[in-house]
Amino acid sequence: MAEGRIPVERRRRRPTRSGVVLSEELIVDRALRLVEQHGPDALSVRRLGTALGCDPSAVYRYFHNTDDLLLALADRLIGEAMAGFEPGEDWVAGLREMAHRIHRCYRAHPRIAALAASRVTRRPHEFRAVDTGIGLLRRAGFDDATAVRHYAAFVDTVLGHAALDAAHLALAPERRAGDEVAWAEVYQSLPGEEYPQLAAVRRELPLMAGGSFEGAVELLLSGLVGRAGVAGGSNTGGAEKQTR
């Protein structure tokens, strides 16, 4: 049995007072909805029990505590991101698609993304994602230890940008707009004698308002392509085409 999982025999089979038969999937569905509607603070067993129409204690038949539930939510996001993903022979294209899938999914669930990005779920969807990513890097020709280290750098970069962009989306609209306008107004007006480097690139500073996810991913992939060439890897044409 995976660490932290509730034995099947302890799980409720009788309908709740609202007529719903509980399941791990249903609880995760409602928890995700709660967080998306009311924010991370809404993730409590009491509020979840109300949403499910059951005594809150029934949730403990499926999850030890709210942190255990959070790990299940994080794994749900990974599963959603990876659904239907079958990488082809081009390992660079596979990593690129994997990165964009994760980024899109986290932006679609901004209120849970920041909570989920830093966790290790120890669950099936994460197992598959890690297995796939490391497999792509081994296919590139990296030895086992190097493939693991490079995968850690890859996924941390992707998750970091995904969480950052999701957090920005979760801001109140006026705060988000204020941050974006700052590059075009506040930074434009800084005195050149005090900030000479900013003054030199003044006209380009509005670019800072855009996300840097795609640029960061391409820089990382280019670095991996170069290192794969040294390691004897092959099939790197995808990154070369994209980064010229």
From TrEMBL:
A Pfam match: TetR_C_1
Domain of life per record: Bacteria
Annotated HTH tetR-type domain residues: 21-81
Protein keywords: DNA-binding, Transcription, Transcription regulation
Keyword field contains Transcription: yes
Keyword Cell cycle included in the entry's annotation: no
Annotated DNA-binding residue span(s): 44-63
Protein name: TetR/AcrR family transcriptional regulator
Originating species: Streptomyces luteolus
Taxonomic lineage: Bacteria, Bacillati, Actinomycetota, Actinomycetes, Kitasatosporales
